[in-house]
Amino acid sequence: MSKPPLFIFLCCLATLNFIHGQIDVLSELEVPQTAPVGYESIVSAKLSEALQSGVAYEIGFWIFGRQLPDQSYSYPIAVFPSGQSISNENVLDIVEAVQPQPQLEVHPPPTYATRGHFTFIVRPDQAYDHVTIALKNKSNQPSPIDFNKDITVTGIAVKPLPSRPKEETSPVKTEGVTHTPPPDKIADRILIDSEKSYTVLVDEIQLGLYDHRRIDNDIVTIYLNGIVAVKHVKLKRKKQFFDLALQLGKNIITLHAENLGKVAPNTAAILIKTKKQEFMAVLESDLGQSSYFTLVYEKPKL
């Protein structure tokens, strides 16, 4: 007698879980960490090695839910890196989904979920030794499922993304370099220091702009050292890249909001890329103030 499709699907998941188990560096907690308001924790795992700042990590897992006889349901998927507890929703600023707008979608028989495996990229801003998989549920209506019993996460795997060896650097030569402090305002906006600073070893970079959370028609302008570098860019899910030339020493990159989109404030994820380095910053600006971060160009040691 032939096996039903659901049985075959679950057998495949069990096989995948075994394969992932060969490289698994996690131990699941009996009780998941509590997610921020509006999210349902499905599973939390303690890492044998903490995620470290300055390294990008890939987190992959399978997730599936119980089928209902005559009703579909779907929930956005979120990944929360944390310490002993999840501090707040802002930690999502360091998490990027590989699949656009990842959701768990479950339909009545004979169909099933549209996708079972999901991958996220985490760029930690500090050490995190736990990871929680959660579903976003901000609806006031009762859910048709029990999140504690009807949702299963399996095959969680975490691995650092490859990076090139860091070049040796020499102290920045200050001779002939002017370190002008940023002005108090740009285009009548008060400037707010994000207190984020990154160092690159080349004077030409690629700056990527995208909206890594809600797409709500945000439009931004980027200032480099007080001068417009990228003008009136509508943020999308897909990254848009622009070439910038840096001065030796400190460079100030400012996010200027041209509008507030559908939800204030205007939030943008900014990638700084060179052939050997990559950094990510998330800035928020509104119609009264603009956030900035510092990018230091150091000449490599010859």
Q: Features of this protein?
A:
five-stranded antiparallel sheet; Immunoglobulin-like; 19 strands; 302 residues; 2 domains; disordered N terminus; six-stranded mixed sheet; 7% helix; mainly beta
Strand order of the largest sheet: 10-11-19-16-13-14
- Helix and strand composition category: mainly beta
Radius of gyration: 22 Å
Average predicted confidence as pLDDT: 80
Domains, number: 2
Give the count of helical stretches.
2
Assembly state: single chain
**Residue runs with pLDDT of under 50 for 5 or more positions:** 1-25, 164-178
Distance between the termini: 71 Å
* Helical content class: under 10%
Largest sheet: 6 strands, mixed
- The overall strand count is 19
**Basic shape:** globular
Order of helices and strands: HEEEEEEEEHEEEEEEEEEEE
How much strand content do the residues show? over 45%
What's the SSE blueprint?
Layout: H1 5-21, E1 26-28, E2 39-51, E3 57-65, E4 73-82, E5 95-97, E6 103-106, E7 117-122, E8 128-136, H2 147-150, E9 151-160, E10 185-186, E11 189-200, E12 204-210, E13 219-224, E14 227-234, E15 240-245, E16 249-257, E17 266-273, E18 278-285, E19 289-297
Parallel strand pairs: 11-19
Antiparallel strand pairs: 1-2, 2-8, 3-7, 3-9, 4-6, 4-8, 5-7, 10-11, 12-15, 12-17, 13-14, 13-16, 16-19, 17-18
